[in-house]
Design brief:
The structure holds 2 protein chains of 2 kinds. By secondary structure, chain A is α/β, with parallel strands linked by helices. Chain A has helices at about 10-20, 35-40, 60-70, 85-90, 105-120, 155-165, 175-180, 190-205; strands at about 1-5, 25-30, 45-50, 75-80, 95-100, 130, 135-140, 145, 150, 170-175, 215, 220-225. Chain A folds into 2 domains: about 1-120, Rossmann fold (3-Layer(aba) Sandwich); about 130-225, Winged helix-like DNA-binding domain superfamily/Winged helix DNA-binding domain (Arc Repressor Mutant, subunit A), CATH 1.10.10. In chain A, helix 2 (about 35-40) runs parallel beside helix 3 and helix 6 (about 155-165) packs across helix 7. Chain B is rod-shaped and about 155 Å long. In chain B, a hairpin with a 4-residue loop joins strand 12 (about 445-450) and strand 13. Chain B is an alpha+beta fold. Classes of the chains: A alpha/beta, B alpha+beta.
Chain lengths: ~230, ~475
């Protein structure tokens, strides 16, 4: 995956570049809005990570300009401004995701990977069913089975599993789940998401030999067929 | 600066100077106008008298000749306060009259003019000014009729000195008034300056004196005092908050630093380092969470988060949040009762209301939770009702509750009652909920749930659908 990181703090940029390299992603750096705009205009990136407050051209204007040019590269805003309305402004400008500083790298990585994947599979043609291991989720009939065995899920559990399976093999974080399954952007003070996951896990993994719903330490959760 | 110098610089002084100038100008204009008209009137009177005299004498001359004229003049001239008369031959020799010492040559010219003369009986008296009319009679005789002008001159002098005196009087009064007003205002403003100086120096207890007359200066002093009260209040709040921030952020920072230091000193293998680092990250995350909550409260309190407001269903939000926390409650062996209406429209920030409810539920679960050995089951409930004026979202628990005396205090930032410090939490949950309530124009009420606590988030309907 090839990334463009537009960030004026050299130390933060270097840290990101190194961290992405360690997990096997290439990242180009731009230290100001204009350079970033020039690089991003060429396209060719899977995801652009933009700081909001940049010299020469601020993040929101940059995103606006790119979208005007019909450059649809997924963009993630990384900003110290993390309140609800800041986020709304960012997304309205045309960004695909918004992450407040300070952040955990695992959170950023998970979000960037999800964005890159979304680009890979044209989002307009969402699949009607997902299949991982023996687990199958049908979005039309709202049925979940594992190895042909019917699994009863509450509506929210269904949406939780649906989100996990849509990003099967990828790591999704707790905040991503809260944002996408519950549509809230606050930080729950306690492990509310964990409890939901463990409930879901007891329904889809209990009694089966290979667990599918994995906890990724320090990051979040992932549904994958570990047998593969 | 001298007191006088200070006086010259005051607005009151400048104002009274301006009034003074205007007053003097007006006074002089009015007096001047009166004097001018008086003089004109007097002059006209004099001319008229002379004309009448001349007309009478010419009639006498025409009917009785020179002899009659001379007799008439001698008769008239002998009366006290009479006009001035003179009849001369064509060569200038005096035939009759009561004046002398005039330029006889001048009499050759007919017409009206002013001249200086001496009264015949006075002899050497100083010359008087007079307005005269000279006509040439048939046969070349000259007749001069005039009126002494010294009376007019005296009158003019009186007016002139009246103008002078009144201007002087006005000047003196204006200066005295200006000085009085300036000193009075200056004194009161000086009295105001003293406390502001001490406030500037850091003593915030001083207040401006209010004289009780309710004039502009009083109102200014009252407003400034109110402003000072508000500032003092804010400063006290700020100090308290910063003290609390110092405490509640420094504690985890110290823990964080200590564990890092300890690992450096004692850890021997990678696994130990790893554990410490994970611990450090956890502490850092907790700190970030606290910071975020603080920022959010600040943002909510500054009241400019209205951008994200829209119409939404509060019952839906309550249902979502209840459902989000339900597994957590179950895990803590707390039974959750949900009593919500089908729909509860509200105008506001869905995110913030959701977060406030989440905080309240989180608290409720935390404080209701107990050992399973306790006979009474732990129970919490979330409810919502539409009241006449708005909606009320409530979260209750049957935990230890909060004594009435402490209820107002726990809403403040970071306040955690004794015995709750050991439980996890930032101490910001209730403050945040309260800030959210205020942002929506509502209140957060803490009530006795007997046993336990009932927290009510009351949001007025104002703005629904707008």
């Amino acid at each position: 995956m090839k990334l463009l990181i537009i960030e004026d703090d050299a130390a933060a940029a270097a840290y990101l570049e190194k961290a992405f390299r360690e997990v096997g992603h290439m990242a180009d750096l731009a230290a100001n809005g204009l350079d970033g705009y020039a690089l991003a205009s060429d396209g060719g990136y899977d995801v652009v990570v933009v700081d909001r407050m940049l010299p020469k051209m601020d993040g929101l204007s940059l995103i606006h300009a790119l979208r005007e040019q019909k450059i649809e590269t997924p963009i993630l805003i990384l900003s110290a401004l993390g309140q609800v309305d800041d986020r709304v402004k960012g997304l309205r400008a045309g960004a695909d995701d918004y992450l407040a500083k300070p952040y955990a790298f695992s959170e950023l990585l998970a979000r960037v990977e999800v964005l890159a994947r979304r680009r890979g599979t044209a989002s307009s043609t969402e699949e009607t069913s997902y299949q991982i291991g023996g687990l199958e989720l049908n979005r039309l009939s709202h049925r979940v089975t594992r190895d042909g065995q019917e699994i009863e899920l509450q509506p929210r559990e269904f949406r939780l599993l649906e989100y996990l399976m849509r990003h099967g093999g990828q790591v999704v974080t707790r905040t991503m789940l809260l944002e996408n399954v519950w549509d809230y952007h606050f930080d729950p003070q306690t492990n509310v998401i964990d409890v939901h996951i463990s409930r879901l896990r007891s329904k889809i993994d209990k009694g089966f030999e290979t667990p599918l719903l994995h906890t990724v330490r320090g990051a979040g959760y992932s549904i994958r067929d570990s047998a593969r | 600066m001298t007191a006088l110098g200070k006086l010259f610089r005051t607005t009151a002084f400048k104002l009274s100077m301006a009034y003074l100038v205007i007053f003097v100008l007006f006074a002089s204009a009015i007096l001047g106008y009166v004097a001018f008209n008086m003089r004109r009137l007097l002059d006209e009177q004099v001319s008229l008298t002379i004309e009448e005299d001349v007309k009478g004498l010419v009639t006498q001359f025409n009917s009785g000749g020179l002899r009659r004229l001379v007799a008439q003049i001698e008769r008239r001239a002998s009366q006290p306060g009479s006009s001035l008369y003179l009849v001369t031959t064509p060569t200038g020799e005096t035939l009759a009259g009561n004046i002398s010492g005039i330029d006889q040559e001048g009499l050759l010219d007919a017409g009206r003019y002013q001249l200086f003369y001496r009264v015949l009986e006075d002899g050497d008296a100083k010359p008087h000014r007079a307005l005269v009319d000279t006509i040439v009679l048939p046969g070349g005789f000259r007749l001069l009729v005039g009126r002494d002008l010294s009376e007019t001159d005296r009158f003019r002098g009186v007016i002139r000195s009246a103008i002078g005196w009144s201007i002087l009087l006005v000047l003196m009064m204006a200066v005295a008034g200006g000085v009085f007003v300036a000193r009075r205002v200056l004194g009161r403003i000086d009295a105001m300056t003293a406390p502001t100086r001490s406030i500037k120096a850091g003593d915030f207890s001083g207040r401006l004196a209010v004289s009780g007359t309710n004039d502009e200066l009083d109102r200014l002093a009252q407003n400034l005092n109110a402003m000072l009260d508000r500032i003092a209040e804010l400063m006290a709040g700020l100090r308290e908050v910063s003290d609390n921030i110092a405490h509640d952020l420094k504690t985890p920072l110290t823990r964080l630093r200590n564990s890092a230091e300890e690992a450096l000193r004692t850890a021997t293998d990678t696994e130990e380092y790893r554990l410490t680092l994970e611990n450090v990250i956890d502490e850092a995350d907790q700190l970030i969470r606290t910071f975020n909550a603080l920022l959010m409260i600040a943002r909510a309190e500054s009241g400019n988060a209205t951008e994200g407001m829209a119409a939404f269903d509060a019952a839906d939000v309550a249902r979502d949040v209840a459902e989000l926390y339900e597994p957590l409650a179950e895990e803590a062996h707390v039974t959750m009762h949900v009593t919500l209406p089908e729909k509860l429209p509200l105008y506001g920030s869905r995110e913030l209301i959701g977060q406030a409810l989440a905080n309240l539920l989180d608290n409720a679960i935390k404080y209701a939770a107990r050992d399973e050995s306790v006979s009474e089951k732990a129970e919490i409930s979330i409810g919502a009702v539409a009241t006449g004026t708005g909606i009320e979202l409530s979260v209750s628990d049957n935990g230890p509750g909060i004594p009435e005396a402490d209820r107002a205090r726990v809403v403040e930032r970071f306040v955690r009652l004794e015995g709750s410090r050991s439980r996890p939490g930032s101490g910001l949950g209730l403050s945040l909920a309260s800030a959210v309530a205020r942002l929506h124009g509502g209140t957060l009420r803490l009530e006795d749930h007997a046993p336990g606590l009932r927290v009510v988030l009351a949001i007025p309907k104002r703005g629904i659908g707008s």
